Amino acid sequence: MSLLVASSLVAGAQWVARLPGPTYESPTEGSPGFAGFVATFLLAVAVIALAVSFTRRMRRATHRDRLRAEADGADTAGDGVDAPQVAVPGAEPSASDGGDGGHPDGAPAEGPVPGQDPR
Description:
The protein is mostly helical and 119 residues long. Helix content is 50%, strand content 0%.
């Protein structure tokens, strides 16, 4: 196996030696010069600035989504499970408990409902 690798390296080196070298008609033809360097540098700076800005915005959006999900999870923590309702003797069920507000005819309770904005 090593003989095959060695012969491939020797053949490759001989092939590379036969290739002609670079042929430039003028000394500045192979290089874009200072203006090309400045343009490439400014392009690289702009790409890096855009990448940093994009990353920062994505972090903010992810953080906001996480906060919203946590807030929604806290608001609806018990929605999926029906907890047993414990009746307190002498207490009337309120509208927020899913009852009819304590009215025999099912009319809504008068006054502000606890936990809701009175407006």
